[in-house]
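JOB MANIFEST
job_type = single_chain_structure
chain_count = 1
residues = 470
[input]
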Amino acid sequence: MMQDAVTTEAAALGEAIADRIGQQKYRVWFGRSAKMELAEDRLVIAVPSEFMAGWIKSHFAEEINQAAQAVTGKDLRLVMQVEPGLLQTEDGRKTRPEPMMEKKERPLMAVTGRAPARKAQGLKLVLDDFVVGPSNQLGFNAAQTVVNSDASPFNPLFIHGGYGVGKTHLLQGICNGLATARPGARIAYLAAEDFMNQFVLALKTKRLEEFRTRFRQLDVLAIDDIHFIANKNSMQGEFLHTFNSIDLAGKQIVLASDAHPKQIGQISESLVSRFVSGMVVKIDSPEYQTRLEICRRMAARLRKHIGEDVLQFIAEHMRSNVRELEGAMLKLVAFASLGGERVSVDMARHILDDHITRTDPLVHVSDIEGSVAAFFGVSPADVHSSKKNRTVAMARSFCMYLARNSTRMSFPEIGRYMGNKNHATVLMACRKVDDLVGRNADVRWDSPAGNRVAKARAILTQLQDALAMR
């Protein structure tokens, strides 16, 4: 009878934990492999691996304690135990941990480098094709230094800037340059989302050690869109250990993000301190001469004669990023080829009218957040953070509203840039500001000089005037 009571109490405890952390998380972390035992003064949870034990204790300890208090009426000490024999398959059968992957499994973009000019697997962009100008000179020089130095002085190299300014080109260029310079080097380039997906897959397939070995023994690790790991604590912890292993071995790490490390919201201080310990370099939108040279090279690549006056027209009006330039060039060349017409300025003006209307006057999202942060007396880092006090929330809402109405960025792009917020958050912020402006409501916030209040339309007008002067 006593044993039945203990079993019933343990089952009730499991239900209480599931209610607090959610059924899906409970199934993943407790459902198939965890075993709970109640003692007089403690709760013992046994799991198959040290990773699971650490994860449960660091992420769910508070909820577990609350559940234990509710079920038993006592404050129990949480004890985590590791029992590899608890590992189970989908149908509930116990099994031994799986062996490492066979060699036939595809490696993650590893570079063998046998041929001197071989590119890294799947990567097409090289530094020789990168158009250099004042906006990206420092980033390009840093990339070349990483490729040409036996021991790079920039580790990590952290490149940040808006979308479409060349960050991915530099990362792939570095990987391809190192593949040529160091035959046999183990090199991996991937997006942060891919890194996370592989991590999750390794957890599900019980191949976490093989995942760690594969990444932590690399000679070069290049991660694009590293801001994707914001607000993902488990992913940040795993990447921190990977970063430390590669760094301590004296190997190279290259990262790219939409924002400066200190402006990425909801990311651990440990990672931020490591990101800024190397070389942090910003790439800005290309200036006129750089845009013109990009147009010239693209025309040559498309094997289409386009007059210098047309190229100048495109470079003058397509100002924000390289992708916009390439899209305009492709559209113009396709139209001329289909109609059998000569490309002219009049044709460009007509065909690209929609692009020009949407992008002129030019406003960068970095300008927006700088102006808004200054107006409300906060920092750009606050806008990217998860802070929810009245002043920061209002500044963030106006940032998102202006970004949506003054740039070509979509709701998801704005959300990713401003601290990895989801698109629904951006949509709600835009609706909120729309409502305030529509009613010309009073907006209140706290500034270093004290409490302030102003009409919504006056705030919007002042911010738009500030942006026009940048």
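[summary]
The longest helix spans residues 50-72.
The chain has four domains: 2-86, 127-283, 288-359, 365-468.
exit_status = 0
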